[in-house]
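#lab-general

N.A. 3:47 PM
ok so I finally got the sequence cleaned up, no stray characters, all 624 residues accounted for. can someone with queue access submit it? mine expired

B.Y. 3:52 PM
send it over

N.A. 3:53 PM
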Amino acid sequence: MSRSQIIGTILGFFFVTFAIYGLSLGNNFVAWDDNYLIISNAIIKGFSWEHTVSAFTSFDPELYDPLIFLVYQFNYMIGGIDPFMYHFTNLVLHTLNALGVCVVLSMLTKKRWIGILGGLVFAVHPLNTEAVSWASALKDVLSTFFFLASLIVYLQYRKNGDRKWMLYAVSIILFLLGLLSKVMVLTLPAVLILMDLYENRQWSKRMIHEKIPYAVLSIIFGIVALLGKQDIVTQSTIVEKMLMAAKSTIFYVWSYLWPDRLSVLYPYSKPIILASPDFFVPVLLVTAMIGIMILTFKKARPISVGIAFYLITLFPTFFNFAKGNYFYVASDRYAYIPQIGLLLALFFVVDRLLERQTARYRQEYIYTGVGIILLILSVLAMRQSLVWKNTETLFLQTLKYHPDAQAARLNLGYVYRESKMYDKALEQFDIVLRREPDSALAFANMGLVYEKQGRIDDAISVYQQGISAKPRERDSYMSLGMLYERLEKLDEALALYIKVTEINPVYAPVYANMGSVYVQKNDLTAAQAAYEKAVSINPHYADAHFNLAYIHTKNGRLAEAAAEYETTLAIEGDTIETLQTLTGIYAEQNKVDDTVRTLQRILAIDPANTFATQLLQAIESQNR
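B.Y. 4:20 PM
back already:
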C-alpha cells in the first residue's frame, strides 16, 4: 500500500468507530467496577513516584494489571473523574486494535481486502461494545493492543529472517506490556507456535527456543494471576468448569454470528450436568469443532488455525465462571481476542466461495454482502453502546433478558437507593430475597434503605435477619455495626466488628471502623493499633492514614503525624482541608520551609485562599 492509502485506511477506521461510538463518549460511569477502579481508587489520583509504586504493588482486586492504573492516572491528570476521557481512551485503543486485526489478517492471508474487511467487522461488531463502552474494560483493549503489536512484530521478524533480532526483542517487550495490562494474553506463546505451523515452518530446536522467553513470562504472570483469583478458581469443580467451558465456547460463536440479546451478565442457575441439553449439545459441537480443526489442517489451514486460535485464546476464561454464589456463562469482552480466529476462518470460507464465482460478480458480492452486514452490525453496536449510558440502563437491559440476574437487581437497587428512590430500591431487594432468601447483600442493602428513611428499628431487624441467614458473611455485621456506632452503642458496634475480623481477618475497613470506636471510647492506644492494622493490610487506605495522623497529633507525636498526613495526600491527592491541618503541624514544629511549601500547595488549588495568603504574608514579614 502507498503512504496515502495507509493514511486513508487509518482515517477511515477512526471515522467508522467514532461515528458508531461517538454518542457513547458521553456515557457516565457504571456501578460495575468503575467505582472501585476509578471513582474511589486513590492510586489513580496522582501521577507521582508514590502512585507508580502503588500501581505496581496492587491488585485490582483480582488481577495484577499495573499499566491500567498508570493509564487511569494519565486520564485523571487530564480530566479528573470526568468519564469522557476514560471512554475516549478505550475508543482510541479499540480503533487501533481494529487496525491491528487488519494488519494480522493481511499478513496471514496475503490478501489486503480480507484484512480491511476483517478489521472493519472487528471495529463494528456489537459483541465488542462491552470492551469499548465500559471504562473498566480498559484492561481488555490495552492488553489486546500489546498482544496484536507483539504478534505483528513477531510475524515481521519471521518474514525478515533471523538477522532481525531487534524485532524479536521488541516483540517480547510488547508481550510483557500486554501481561502488565491483563494476564489473559498469556496464550501468546501458543499462538506464535500456531503462526509457525500456519506458515508451514518446520519443527526445530530454534523454533522452540524462540518461544522460551514468552513462555517464561506467561508462567510467571499465570502464577501471579492464580494468587489473585484463588477464591474464584476454587468455587467450581473441574467437571463444572469443563461443561461451562463447552457452553461458553459455543455461546460466543453463536453471539458472533447472531449478536442479539447482548448483556453485561449471562447468569446460569440450573444444574450443571452433562445429561442436560444445555451442556450435552455444546460438548458435541465443541467436539465437532475440534474434528474440523484436525481435518482441515492440510487442505484448508486457515480454518484449522482460526479454530485453534479461537480455542487457545479463549482458554484462560474457562476458570472464571463462578463468582460469589452465582455462575455466569460468558462475558462479551472475553471474546475480544478469540474472535480474530473466527474472522480468519470465516473470511477464508468467504474467499473460497467467491473464487467459484465469475470475475464479473465477485466485487458485487463483496461490496454488497459485506456492506449490508457491516451496516447491520454498526447499528446494533451503536444501540448497544448506549445501553452503557448509566447503571440503570445497563442493568434494566440485563433484567429484560435475564430476570434471574441477582447481581443486576442488587446493583439496580443500589442505584435507586443512592437516587433516593427508596420504594424502587426496596422492590428490587425484595425480589432478590424472594428468589434467594438468604442473600446477605440484599438484607444489608435493604437495611441501608430503612436507615435513610429513618426506620431504625426496621433496619436493625433486617440486619439481624441477614446475620441469621448468612452468619459467615460480613455485610450485615458491618452495616449493623456502623448503625450501632451512629447510635453511640459502641460496645455493641465493637462486638460486631470483632466478629467481622474473625470472618475475614484481612478486611481493612473493619479495622478502620474499630479505630473510630476506640477513639470515641478515648482508647487511643487501641485506636492506633486498629488503624495501623488497616494500613498494613491496605497501604493505600487514605482515611486510615488520616485518622492515624490524628492519633499521633493527640499523642504529641507531630513528626509521625506529619508523615501520615503526607502519605494521605500522596494517596488521594492534595486537598485543602488536609493541607491546612498539615500546615498547622509544621508551624507548631517551627518548620518554616515545610510550612511555606504546604501553603504554596494550598494556593495552587485555591489562589484566593485567605488562610494561606495571610499566613504566608505573616511568615514573610517575620523573615524581613
